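Field log, afternoon session.

UNIT: design team B
ACTIVITY: writing a sequence onto a fixed backbone
BACKBONE:
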C-alpha cells in the first residue's frame, strides 16, 4: 500500500490493522511503494509509533501488461507511469528514513529477479525483461524444470534481505 501522511486515513487504518495483529499475536509488517505522491515525505514518526517487525520499502516498478497502461480500458486503469520515481528520488526517501531500524529497501533492480511468483496455472513468472513471462506449469514439467526459465537469482534474493526469521520462537508458540 502507498502510505502517505497527506491524509490521516492511512495512519488510522494502519493503526487498526496493527491493533488487530497485536490482539491475535500476529507479527506486523508494513509494505510501502515509494512513488511520485510520497517520495518526499517523512513517515518516520508514524512507522516508529506503529513499530512493525519489518517495513518493506519498494520503488514503484512498471511491469509491461500489468501497470504500464494500455489500449485496453481495463489495463489502462492500472497505468502507473505517472507514479514512477527516479533512483535519486527513491534514495532521497531512503535517506529521510535512514534511522528507521526495521526498514528494508527494494529498488527496481533488487526486485526484478529476486522473487519467485506463481500464477494460477502454477507457472513461474519471469520478470527479467520487465514483464511477466510464464514458464511451463510445474504440474507438467516439475519445479526444477520450471525454475530453469523463472529468471530467479538466489544471490539477489539474499542480497535484498529476502531470507530472514519471520516467526515467533517455538518456545513462544501456543499449541
Amino acid at each position: 500500500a502507498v502510505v502517505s501522511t497527506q491524509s490521516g486515513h492511512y495512519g488510522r487504518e494502519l493503526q487498526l490493522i496493527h491493533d488487530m495483529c497485536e490482539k491475535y499475536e500476529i507479527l506486523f509488517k508494513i509494505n510501502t511503494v515509494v512513488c511520485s505522491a510520497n517520495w518526499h515525505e517523512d513517515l518516520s514518526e508514524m512507522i516508529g509509533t506503529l513499530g512493525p517487525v519489518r517495513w518493506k520499502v519498494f520503488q514503484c516498478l512498471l511491469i509491461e501488461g500489468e501497470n504500464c497502461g494500455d489500449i485496453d480500458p481495463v489495463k489502462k486503469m492500472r497505468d502507473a507511469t505517472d507514479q514512477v520515481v527516479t533512483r535519486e528520488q527513491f534514495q532521497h526517501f531512503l535517506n529521510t528514513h535512514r534511522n528507521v531500524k526495521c526498514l528494508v529497501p527494494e529498488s527496481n533492480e533488487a526486485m526484478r529477479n529476486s522473487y519467485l511468483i506463481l500464477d494460477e496455472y502454477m507457472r513461474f513468472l519471469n520478470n527479467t525483461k520487465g514483464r511477466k513471462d510464464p514458464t511451463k506449469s510445474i504440474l507438467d514439467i516439475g519445479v526444477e524444470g520450471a525454475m530453469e526459465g523463472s529468471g530467479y537469482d538466489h544471490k539477489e534474493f539474499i542480497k535484498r534481505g529476502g531470507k530472514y526469521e519471520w516467526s515467533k520462537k517455538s518456545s513462544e508458540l501456543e499449541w
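LOG NOTE: The CA atoms of residues 25 and 170 lie 14 Å apart.
NEXT ACTIVITY: expression trials, pending approval
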